[in-house]
Write a structure and sequence with these properties.
It contains eleven helices and eight strands. It is 33% helix and 13% strand. The protein has an eight-stranded parallel β-sheet with strand order 1-2-3-4-5-6-7-8, covered by helices on one side. 36% of the residues are buried.
Length: 352
């Protein structure tokens, strides 16, 4: 047994007579994500993304079980790969590489992934930590090799964005249940969008540009995702910081990553994103909780958005300036939701 294994399993005797369901439950007990209860509403609707507690020993224990027997390996792999969780920016490259390599070499693992939670922006204690050259070269080599084998053209200036797109390309999207991303605002996911659009249009027998508005096929839709927390990291250099109601030519920044992920998640119930990710005015009849961040003018969009959210009960609205919808406009836009709305938070002209 691995020296890093959880104390609870050291020295236990393997009994092949136990049913696989029981071994799976034991493995879930060893996973801190599976044993972390539902987040309170205040945390779900908080402006800054909340992250689950995670123990580094989880991987060691479950990996040790994978080396014990075929039955234990099957149970432990389901738990080990059900969450792609990397919360440290300086460890993202190496951890994501290993995770992607495993999914590529063992396709059966792709169906186990239920959660993608990546911290790909910001630095611990505000101090930049950059990957070593060897990790960077290895990541570039991995992306080139797998992209070539999958015929997935991955063009981006950021190796972290390339790896993240490759991750979404490899996982079984319909089995995902939760997506949490804290990423740079300059990311676009253009390669992933182009691939998904071409596959969808090919299946429909349509020849069109990937930029056209299309309906993604169910095979490439995150139909099981109920919780989506998308946070964009930006230095706000293109955002007006004036807090009063002066005329400003700055527009709400587009967010192609958020737009793509919201478009392919038709049954999301809890959503945290920026206004730029909702420019398509998606219809989400099952959405009940929305946290919306506005960084500039968003003329007549909020009221149109509300028409597509008939089940909305909780709204958290924040703006870093007063160029977006103000209190009266928000109240008017929520006119059809007054009987259903249970909670409303508004922050004007500042980050809260």
């Amino acid at each position: 047994m691995d020296q890093h294994a959880h104390p609870a399993i050291k020295g236990i005797r393997y009994d092949h007579r136990l049913p696989p369901e029981l071994w799976l439950r034991i493995c879930e007990f060893l996973c801190s994500h599976c044993n972390y209860g539902p987040r309170p509403l205040r945390q779900i609707m908080a402006l800054k993304p909340t992250r689950r507690l995670w123990s580094a020993k989880d991987d060691w224990t479950l990996r040790a079980l994978c080396r014990t027997s075929p039955i234990l390996r099957q149970a432990a792999q389901k738990v080990l790969f059900h969450a792609c969780y990397f919360q440290s920016t300086h460890r993202l490259l190496g951890g994501l590489m290993r995770f992607i390599r495993s999914l590529y070499e063992c396709p059966n693992l792709r169906h186990y992934v239920r959660l993608i939670d990546l911290q790909a922006a910001g630095f611990p204690d505000g101090v930049p930590v950059f990957p070593i050259r060897a990790d960077f070269d290895a990541a570039v080599s991995l992306v080139n090799r797998i992209s070539f084998q999958l015929n997935f053209i991955c063009k981006t200036i950021s190796i972290e964005e390339a790896l993240t797109q490759l991750l979404f390309r490899l996982v079984d999207l319909p089995t995902l249940e939760e997506v949490n991303l804290h990423i740079p605002q300059i990311w676009t996911f253009n390669s992933l969008k182009t691939w998904m659009a071409s596959i969808s249009l090919e299946g429909q027998g349509i020849k069109s540009s990937p930029s056209d508005k299309i309906e993604y096929r169910d095979t490439y839709s995150m139909s099981s995702v109920r919780h989506m927390d998308l946070s964009l990291h930006s230095d706000y250099e293109h955002t007006c910081r004036i807090t009063n109601k002066k005329k400003c030519g700055t527009r709400t920044p587009a967010s192609p990553v958020e737009t793509l992920l919201v478009d392919i998640a038709p049954h999301v119930e809890v959503l945290c994103c920026s206004a730029g990710g909702l420019d398509n005015l998606p219809v989400r009849p099952e959405l009940t909780k929305l946290q919306l961040t506005v960084e500039g003018p968003w003329p007549r969009m909020l009221q149109k958005l509300m028409y597509g959210l008939p089940s909305l009960t909780h709204l958290n609205y924040s703006s870093i300036n007063q160029h977006g919808p103000l209190s009266r406009e928000i109240i008017d836009a929520l006119g059809n939701h007054r009987d259903k709305l249970q909670e409303l938070h508004m922050g004007m002209g500042r980050l809260v």
